[in-house]
Inverse folding.
């Protein structure tokens, strides 16, 4: 697969993998009164501020085929380090804080009185979540998905360490650009990749913004 | 919220003050300017040794940047400040303005595997770590494979420089990798499974280029017999 479709595939897979955990963590952060909330928030936000190279190094320490976890994954025929899944994991991890942030904002905007009403009418918390919170926060969740997808498209530092540059398997747009930098006459190919990158990210940001605004408006109408 | 912002600002101010507070050390009378040396990744240990010995002999200190010769050549071409450039393939000196150049050392090309791995079949490698298209070790490696009529495996992981290739093998990213003999010698995580015959690729030549006259003392030291002796001990081949 060439770099552009590969990047899209990696981005989609990473976003899909993150969806359920991101919604779960965001819900916990927004609605729970647990003592570990602050700690969870800090941990979840770490990949946003840690140098991606550090994230990649830590992930490699976890998934390296020389370690126990990596060996087990190889035995299960789903190796992560230096494979396609590695690029997905790297993209998912660095995109995760943005995803959680967007979902948490969307949930914050949901009027808690609606949830309280549901609870007082005898609806259990999990059902309240699926019947009230989730449907109301849905556009915000999609906006978060778009942002995390865009971040995943651009992942470089963690990917080059965890997955390496394997053309057709882990060589996403940024890695392909990196590979072409030295090549005489690589300018033309770099131009194409840069253009693809700019267009894709532009679309993602516009999409996220549109979803977000629609969401805000809808919640205001509800009130 | 306002309080958080205030806290952040205070923290920032403190950090700034701390940074500025550490007064710059008094400027020595004649600050010895380190020679800025850009060198092929495979020369890391050798040049570090030579620089240490050179300082002991009263030479200038050196500040190194080790990367693929192709990357360094491009960086210098685009204005990166360097006094000396030592490349693992002479052609990467060609695009640059050079005051003086000479061929310095040679090396051998080898196939390495993880230290506990079995000998691989060169014709049927499962996966390979190889230098990128422009990285000298990658260029020599591709030529050596073509000479042996061995295919480049579909799963090939491309390293940004030869040490990157080496670490991919020791990290378990590929079954084998093509690096220089001297690289294999510095990594206890790998062993040499095969040495490519010298006629299988263009002769590996480390060429040194003097970019500014500030680097002259350093390039002169490279030619000294003691420097060549350190190189021999590290496994580099002297040129006839």
């Amino acid at each position: 697969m060439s770099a552009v479709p590969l990047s899209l595939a990696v981005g989609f897979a990473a976003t899909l993998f993150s969806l359920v955990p991101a919604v779960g963590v965001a819900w916990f952060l927004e609605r729970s009164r647990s003592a570990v909330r602050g700690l969870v928030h800090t941990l979840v936000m770490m990949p946003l501020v840690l140098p991606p190279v550090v994230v990649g190094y830590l992930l490699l320490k976890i998934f390296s085929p020389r370690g126990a976890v990596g060996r087990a994954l190889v035995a299960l025929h789903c190796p992560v380090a230096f494979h396609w899944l590695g690029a997905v994991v790297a993209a998912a991890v660095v995109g995760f804080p943005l995803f959680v942030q967007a979902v948490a904002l969307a949930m914050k905007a949901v009027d808690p009185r609606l949830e309280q009403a549901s609870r007082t009418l005898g609806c259990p918390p999990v059902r309240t979540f699926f019947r009230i919170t989730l449907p109301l926060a849905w556009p915000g969740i999609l906006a978060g998905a778009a942002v995390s997808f865009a971040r995943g498209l651009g992942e470089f530092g963690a990917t080059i360490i965890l997955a390496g540059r394997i053309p057709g398997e882990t060589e996403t747009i940024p890695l392909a650009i990196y590979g072409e930098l030295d090549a005489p006459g690589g300018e033309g190919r770099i131009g194409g990749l840069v253009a693809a990158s700019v267009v894709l990210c532009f679309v993602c940001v516009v999409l996220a913004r549109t979803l977000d605004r629609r969401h805000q408006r809808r919640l205001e109408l509800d009130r | 919220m306002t309080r958080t912002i205030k806290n952040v600002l205070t923290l920032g101010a403190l950090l700034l003050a701390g940074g500025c507070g550490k007064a710059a050390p008094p400027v020595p009378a004649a600050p010895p300017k380190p020679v800025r040396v850009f060198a092929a990744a495979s020369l890391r240990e050798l040049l570090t040794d030579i620089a240490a010995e050179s300082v002991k002999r009263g030479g200038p200190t050196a500040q190194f940047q080790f990367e693929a010769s192709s990357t360094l050549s491009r960086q210098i071409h685009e204005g990166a400040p360097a006094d000396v450039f030592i490349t693992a393939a002479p052609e990467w000196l060609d695009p640059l303005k050079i005051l003086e150049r000479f061929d310095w050392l040679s090396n051998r090309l080898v196939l390495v595997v993880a230290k506990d791995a079995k000998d691989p079949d060169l014709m049927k490698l499962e996966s390979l770590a190889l230098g990128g298209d422009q990285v000298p070790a990658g260029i020599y490696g591709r030529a050596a494979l073509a000479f042996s009529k061995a295919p480049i495996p579909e799963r090939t992981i491309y390293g940004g420089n030869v040490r990157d290739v080496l670490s991919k093998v020791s990290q378990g990213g590929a079954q084998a990798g093509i690096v220089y003999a001297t690289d294999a010698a510095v990594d206890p995580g790998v062993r040499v499974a095969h040495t490519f015959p010298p006629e299988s690729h263009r002769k590996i030549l480390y060429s040194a280029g003097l970019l500014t006259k500030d680097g002259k003392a350093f390039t002169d030291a490279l030619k000294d017999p003691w420097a060549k002796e350190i190189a021999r001990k590290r496994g580099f081949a002297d040129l006839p």
Remarks:
- Chain A is about 80% helix and 0% strand.
- The CA atoms of residues 180 and 189 of chain A lie 7 Å apart.
- The radius of gyration of chain A is 20 Å.
